[in-house]
Structure formats: structure tokens, C-alpha cells
Amino acid sequence: MATLTGLRGRLDEVVGPDHVRTDEGALVTFSTDATPLERGRPDAVVFPATAEEVAGVLRVANELGVPVVPRGSGTNLSAGTIPHRGGIVLVLTRMNKLKEISDAELVAVCEPGVRTLELAQAAAAQGLLFPPDPGSQSTATVGGNVAECAGGLRALKYGVTRDYVLGVQAVLPTGEIIRSGGRLVKDVAGYDLRRLLCGSEGTLAVMTELTLRLVPAPEASGYGMAYFPDLAAAARAVSRVLASGVLPVTLEFLDQVCIGAVEDFAQIGLDTSAGALLIFGQDGNPVVIEHDLERMAGACATEGATSVRIAESPEAASEVLEARRAALPSLSRLEPLTLLEDATVPRSRIAEMVEYIQEVAQRYELKIGTFGHAGDGNLHPTAVLDAADGSAVRRARAAFDEIFARAIELDGTITGEHGIGIVKLRYLERQLGADHMALLRRIKAAFDPNGILNPGKLGS
Amino acid sequence: MSTADITPENAPPRRGVFTPELLDRCISCGFCLPACPTYALTGVETSSPRGRINLMRALETGVLPDDDPTVLEESSFCLGCRACEPVCPAGVQYGELLEEWRDHLWNGRRRPLRVRPLLWAVDSPRRVRAMGIVRRHAGRGGEAPGPVNLMLGCFERFLYPRVSRDARKLAAELTAPAAQGCCGALHAHNGELGRGQELAQELGEALPGTIVTTSGGCGAHLAGVLGPERVKEFSQWMVERERPLAATPEEPSLDGGGAPGAGQAAGRRPRIGLQDSCHLRNGLGVWREPRELIASVGEYVELPSAAACCGAAGSYSVVRPKDSARVLDPHLDEIAAADLDVIAVVNAGCYRQLQQGVKRRKLRTRVVHIAELLAGAGGRAA
After folding, report:
1. Does residue A85 contact residue A38 with C-beta atoms inside 8 Å?
2. Inter-residue contact A93 to A19 (CB < 8 Å)
3. Taking CB atoms and an 8 Å limit, are B70 and A36 in contact across chains?
4. Do residue A23 and residue A86 come from a single domain?
5. What are the chain B neighbours of A86 within 8 Å (beta carbons)?
6. B61 and B150: one domain?
């Protein structure tokens, strides 16, 4: 590739030769993220330390017309950080300074490479909470979570990452450094670019500093669980809980396939004859927690729960949560290939959607377990299969095509929290329509006239 | 390439370097990254467990050749601490993959030069016995094997002969036959998987019944070959044995001679930290037991990095002394900050590593094996 001649030297000038990798082995290890089966070999991997270095890399890339794919820890599940068109992988993990946690202003300021759990722990040490808690929070970076607008288990009560981004510093693909928002809760000067960048999947700009909103940490939390003969009954219980004026912090469910897989693996005494398991929880003042847990337990019983249990101790609570925590590990151990999806539907359609998923799984002779966030309708249908079985892989693709189509029909979305990346781009137009897609492309072109930033994904 | 493009018809052929079930286990979630000491040092995916598994996969499918410099470097840069295993949601047995990797790559000329004399020394039981001949370890009585046998170790019997003597002082029912060689862990971790398994089998025959070892690393390797029911690490065995410690009073008097940190800690319980043995913790799941035992003789202080590799990592400190020292540094910082009287170890390699580090930094903390600590002999020259 002619444009790549001299790329290494130019990158060395920007970040120093110690922070550029072009050896074949390194390129192999940056060819993938957490998305199964997808790969693309980059031409160089660069580790900048400052916004100025990021700008320098982007200017070089613009000049040479080389794609740039920003990346944090590479826990992406939609191939959004895979360089399928080659070019530069821009790794932001060296920018990992946690600059400030202010309990007086309820804000945190950090660089994009800080791990989300690190931020959450630093906030907790000052009695504060950073609510977004995606499953990958121990590894994933704040920058990556903002770029993907990560969700998590607390979304019903606390919202998603978008609701906690107050301000960003970002480098445009053409090399200019801008700021949008800041430390203010109220600030309507200009278009809300910080929110546009949140969830833009590294296609519009590279975020180099984030100012995030924190909330006071709840005093305590409590949990309970209920078994139901089928998911429809569990879904009715969820509706009843919400209609009763309780806004729970946790409302997670496992379908029968997941219950079986967890019990086989973890052996924690789950009732494998049940059709669904609902885990509910509340945080805040202990008196409120007790009251809300009782109301939730009551709603479950009314809707036909076969057994309901409120955890009386932190150990018991940990046991209750273990069933949910073990869902993905248990499923993933069944077969070499785990396809974890995130189709999302309105709460009232959960039972319908999960039944449909089971029907599709049977039709295509696949094992698909579904767990997820009953409170916000975010489902995780998870297919497990043998990667070497080409027929199974093709059947899984066809099955997910139908599942996504159904999610759209039910006023849902093809992705609740994993993003579009490469793998869902072909479903996007079906959900958004042609005019909306054209607008996305015009926005993308306004930010990135030469189309160098994460090309072939969102906005392409 | 996307899902649609991969079919068994065009899947790249495997070379048979790795057991397919082991290599296919990884789902690339990346949960291992924050647990990996070499990822912490570099921040580079290539030096993480997931990155290394991607290198193994590239090697297996011929995308990268055996002599690729990155593949060789990473196979040696990895500490082999297996801290990635307990955090893996998919249950990847990384330690076994690493052994297969080195077994393939390090055959012949690619084995690091500094490993060769070490492996030679412990390859024959005769040479191992010769190493201990001048030292007063527990195995000099010419005993025949009993129902519960104490393993003397290879380098341990030479470097730290007091450990086996103190273990016996604490538990008289331990027999210590002299006719025993090396367990083979060093071989297995350095590219001679087959020989490592043979040595473990030989040791299993020399020591019938239960084998108790004072080195966590040896314990994990032996248990992997002989089965965990036959092999117990010392602290694990002591706790499971559920007997009061033979030689240790419940509340040791610290103003008398022989107690750990005697002299400097008069009148208060000594502050004692622990350096976990990686393979003991990550391989055998044993970590509560040594803490429980330490708490019976002093004030146990959990260091933030207690569970992380100290950089000894078998022969790593010999093969890659600079990296090994970088891995050790934060541990020494923590030991100094906590102002420990004693740092206890449960593995011979960690013993040497911490002793050298503490000496280099001129810290007042004494490094003792848990058997020495319990026997009230901490810190005194053997």
C-alpha cells in the first residue's frame, strides 16, 4: 500500500517509537475485540499519551488517508473496535489519569483510558456513585463506555452512561481539539455535542477527557428472588411492581435455559423446573428497601410466583445475585462459541419476545438462553454453538436476523447497549429508515470529511 | 472476515500445537486484562492473556511462524502466574496452554539459555540429593516413606533446609524420605512438559500416599499430574488436619527468643503479611488457609498485592531478572508502607525473590516461610 509507506516514521515522530507497534504479532493481537468471529488486521497500533498526540496522529492519518480506529480495552461486542479496513488502531489506555472526584460538585474528571470500575471505586471511596455498570466494567474503559453509551444493571432507576456525561474534550478527525459541555448541570449553549459523541462509537471524534456526573451513594441495598411457571407471569409481576410506585434498582430475569445452565455449572440450588427466575433489588434507605422489597415480593406472589424469597443478610443477597452473575459464564462453558446479543423491546413485550426467541431457537435447532434486564426490556439472547460447525453458525445468523426483525416490529431496537459496530450495520436501516440513515451520513461527513475515523461503521 | 465467511470448509487447518478444547475455550471477553501483571506493566494487549491466546491461535493456524519474534518474546515474558484463570468467565486453563506453548516453541535452541543449567540440575534425583547433601534439611534420617510424606523440594532443600525441619517440628507424623527427586514443575513450565510429568510420576512413586509440600508451585504441578487428593500444600494440610499446632502456643510470647521479629516487636503482636503463591492460589484455590494460620500467631495484614505475582515465577527471576524486579517493586513498596514485621511466604521461589528484594531495599521486614513462622523460628539463620 503506497499510502502506508512512511506511516511508521510519521507516527514515531508524533508519539515516539516506543509507543508504535507494527510487528506482525502485535497486529494480530489488535485484530480482534470481544466480538466472536470478526477480525481485521491493522497496519499500525499507536498509544498516545495526550490530546495533542491524538491530534497529531489524526492529522497524519488525514494527510495519508489512513483509517483510524479508536480503542480502549477492546471489550466491544459489535466489532466496533476492529480495524476491518486496516489502518491505525489508536489505543487510549495510556491516557488513564483520574484527575478529580469532587464530592462538593458531584463530578469526576478523567481521561478516557481509566477503567470504569476504577472510577466507580474512587467515587465510592468518597461516598459517591457512578451508576453505569456494564458487565465488562472491571476491564472496560470510561472512554469506551461513553463512546458506546454503555448500559448495565441499574439502568431502569439510574439511566445509562449518556445520563452521566456532563462534558467532553474531543479531537476531531481533522485534528482540532474541541470541548462540549463542562461541569454544569444546565448548559444549553450550542448543539448538545457531548450527547451526540456519547454512543457515536468512535466514528465522529476521539474523546480525550470526560467530565462525569456522580450521585450520592445509596446507604444500603437489598435483594430478593422469585420463581415463576413461565416468563409471561414474571413479566406481569414486573409491570405490577412498576405500577405500584416502586422504582427498583434491580429487576433481572433468567429464562428456563439459563436457569438450567447456571444450575449445571454453579450448583447453587436453583429450581430448574421453573419457567423463569426474577431477581429484584432496591437501594437507598434501609427502611425504604425493606418496604419496597416486600411490595415487590407481594407483586410476584399475586402474579403467580411459585416461590418468593427476600435475602435477609448480605451473604444471602450475594447468593441471590450469583444466579444472574453466573448466567453468561455458565452458558459460555457449554460450547466454544458464545454469541451474546442485546435486542431490546418495551417492557410490556418482554414475554412475547422471549417466547419468540425460544420458538426461533427450536426452529433453527439452536441452544439460546435469554437473560437480561426485565426493568428496561434489554434482553440478552445468547446462542452457544460450535464455531467449527459451519451449519450451526449459518443457522445462528439466520435466527438472529429473525430475532432483530421481530424486535423492530415490537417497537424495540436491534441493540440496547452493545452498539452497531460492524455486525449490526446491515440491520440499522430497517430500524431507522432511509432518510434517517442519510442524515447520519451527513453528520458523519460534517465531522469527518475524509472519512478516516472508524470508517465502514456507524454513519457509513 | 465476518460470521458469514467462516465455515468448516474454509477454516484454516490446525497444526496440532495446542489441545483444541483448551484453545477454543477463550471467548475474548478481555476480563483477564486487569488481572495480568505483564499487562499492568505494559498496557499493551499483546502482553495480556487474551493477546497471548490470540498469538497461540495465530501460531496454531500458521498465521504466525514459530520463530516470530513477538511470539517468542511473549511466550517468555508471561510470568505463568495464572492470575487470569480465576477471573475467566469461560474457564480457560491458561496455565496448560502456556505449557503447551513453551513445549512447542522452546524445544531445542529456542529455550532461554539461563534455564538450561537449572533444568539439568533438577533432572536427576541423584543431582537433587547432592544439592541437599551439605544442608541440614529434614530428609537426612534415611527414613522409609510413611502414609504422609514431606516433599523436600529441589532448590528448597539446598536454599532453605530449615523449612522442612520446621514443618516436621510442627507435625511429627510427617516422614521425610531422602530418596526423592524434583517434582518436575520447572521442566513443565520451561518447555519440557513430558519430562515434567515423568518427574512428577517418579516422585509420586517414591512418595506413596499423601504428599505434603512446602512450595505452592510444586504442589500445583504435582496435583495436576497425581491428582489433588494425593497432594497437599503445607498450610492447606495443616488446616485440614484440624489439630492444634504442636509447637506454637495460641498467643505466642514475643519477648522470648525464637519468636518472629523478636526484639523489635516486644509487647505487641507482630504485623505479618503474606505473599500468596500464584499456583497455590490460582491453580489449587488455596489462599484462606495460610491467612488463617498467620492470624493464629500475629496480626495478619492483607497487602493490596498479596495475591499478585511477586515476579519469582519459577525460573522467571533467573531468565528475566529486570522484568522480575519490576514486577516485585510494588510489593516492596507495600511491605515498606505497611511497616510489616514479617512477610510470610508459601513457596521457595517467592522466598528467594522477597529476601533479595527486602535486602536490596534495606527494609526491616523479615521474610520467613509459613512453617518457620509457625515453628517460632522466623528469620533466624538456618
Report:
1. no
2. no
3. no
4. yes
5. none
6. no
Mean pLDDT (chain A, rounded): 95
Would you call B45 an interface residue with chain A, using a CB distance cutoff of 8 Å?
Answer: yes
Q: Name the minimum distance, in Å, from the CA of B52 to any CA of chain A.
A: 8
Within 8 A by CB and 6+ apart from B123, the residues are B182, B187, B195, B199
pLDDT band per the 50, 70, 90 thresholds, residue B266: low
The Cβ-side half-sphere exposure at A138, using a 13 Å CA radius, reads: 12
Is 0.90 exceeded by the ipTM?
A: yes
Condensed to tens digits (0 to 9), the pLDDT of residues A113-148 reads: 999 999 999 999 999 999 999 999 999 999 999 999
Residue A402 CB coordination number (10 Å): 15
pLDDT given for residue A3 in this prediction = 60
Cα dihedral value A224, A226, A231, A232, nearest 10: -100
Q: What is the DSSP letter of A401?
A: H
Dihedral sign computed on CA atoms, order B346, B352, B356, B362: positive
**Domain boundaries, position B326:** 271-374
Instruction: Single out the residue of A428, A422, A460 nearest to residue A443, CA to CA.
Output: A460
Is A247 in the same domain as A320? Answer: yes
Distance (Å, whole) CA A436 – CA A429? 8
pLDDT greater than 90 at residue A340 = yes
> What percent of chain A shows pLDDT beyond 70?
99
Residue ranges with strand state E in B137-237:
148-151, 210-213, 231-233
Q: If you measure CA to CA, which chain B residue comes closest to A391?
A: B7
User: Which member of B8, B45, B63 has the closest CB to residue A74?
Assistant: B45
Reported as a single tens digit per residue, the pLDDT across B197-219 is 999 999 999 999 999 999 999 99
A39-72 pLDDT, tens digit each? 999 999 999 999 999 999 999 999 999 999 999 9
Cβ neighbours for A48, distance < 8 A, ≥ 6 positions apart: A14, A15, A19, A54, A56, A57, A90, A92, A94, A95
- For the segment B128-148, the average pLDDT, to the nearest whole number, is 82
CATH of residue B204: 1.20.1050
Q: Cβ–Cβ contacts within 10 Å for residue A128, how many? A: 20
Q: Which chain A residues have a beta carbon less than 8 Å from that of B30?
A: 33-34, 73-75, 136, 139-140
Task: Please name the member of B50, B70, B90 whose beta carbon is closest to the beta carbon of A26.
Answer: B70
How many Å lie between the alpha carbon of A202 and the closest alpha carbon of chain B?
A: 19
pLDDT in tens, A305-315: 999 999 999 88
Phi, psi (deg, nearest 5) at residue A273? -85, -15
Grid coordinates of B90 = 469461560
The number of domains in chain A is: 4
Residues near A89 by beta carbon (within 8 Å), at least 6 away in sequence: A30, A42, A44, A45, A46, A69, A71, A81, A83
Q: Are residues A264 and A289 in the same domain?
A: yes
| Residue B113 pLDDT class (50, 70, 90 cuts) | confident
